[in-house]
């Protein structure tokens, strides 16, 4: 686990012999056999490694999902599909509310003419909205995975004149996130591909992640400034939230989006002809995810889930068993809105650098705990200069964090 909080998530163990797994204490872990290996629901600590032992003869566990072809029941949602394969109902069982706006659908693929006046490969001009064409009916749909951890439905669409999009929609038993793992064979010219979500969320602003924080942008076009933001950029997530409910759109590599009233869209592909007429042609793989959540936006809810999509748990096979395992002995933070972004060796000294930031626009103190005895800790700038000694208590340090503040610690171990 390369993230700075404890996690419970699915990790894939490829090329193993066995249909079950257990933790270091011998407790059985939920598992599911897949075409890529054994999927295990593992619990890990902050910035740490966790041993998993593979075994055979595990008892079969019933799936908590129910799929009928036209609809799907999960522990969190009731989902129905229209004839084109888009989602026309997403009912949140815990919140007892509908996520889809009246008359709208979710995961609607659509194309548009993409011929900007300047900079063919870089610009998107506003007038593309006058040439939008929804992608039609599916070519095929099949159930490819159904087990105690997740269910996956594979759908295929013909896009544009000569392109094919194959997508695995994955719903989970342990998280509210809905993944859309996509393979696209793109063969279009001057065509824009987007995916849209009509959300029943009342808000005048959308949160968009940027490096070390987020910004707010309007969802309406009341002014010329608003109209000029018909396409905006974000990093791992954007979020629409009311006072007690919200929906986030997460991604692992697609950073352009637009929002107008209740419609949120993500740009998936361009196809420019200049300066390289074959620039984006060929095969592409990417994942975006829908994440409805109870409560207003928080870094613990939204930002952590987006990091989880982008930094999945990673497995390594050890021939010597758990006895060869060595913990990272790194650190953990006490505040859920503070994220450790980087851990590295100091550039000019025998010390460890820990860079962390406040992700929620909140302030307060945070305690940073280390996995082994420490001798000295300094607060320094991003160049690892101008160090200021910090008070150590029980191998912990407590520091104040202002909204969106970045802090760099230089740590010397005993």
Detailed description of the structure:
This protein is mostly beta strands and 414 residues long. Helices cover 4% and strands 48% of the residues. It has two helices and 34 strands. The chain has helices at 224-227, 299-310; strands spanning 7-13, 20-22, 28-29, 31-34, 37-44, 53-55, 66-67, 71-73, 77-81, 87-92, 97-98, 106-113, 132-134, 140-146, 150-159, 163-172, 178-186, 191-198, 205-210, 213-218, 232-233, 237-241, 245-251, 256-260, 263-269, 282-294, 331-333, 338-345, 352-358, 364-370, 374-380, 388-389, 396-401, 406-413. A hairpin with a 3-residue loop joins strand 22 (237-241) and strand 23. The longest helix is centred in the C-terminal third of the chain and has 12 residues, at 299-310. The two termini are 25 Å apart. The mean pLDDT is 93.
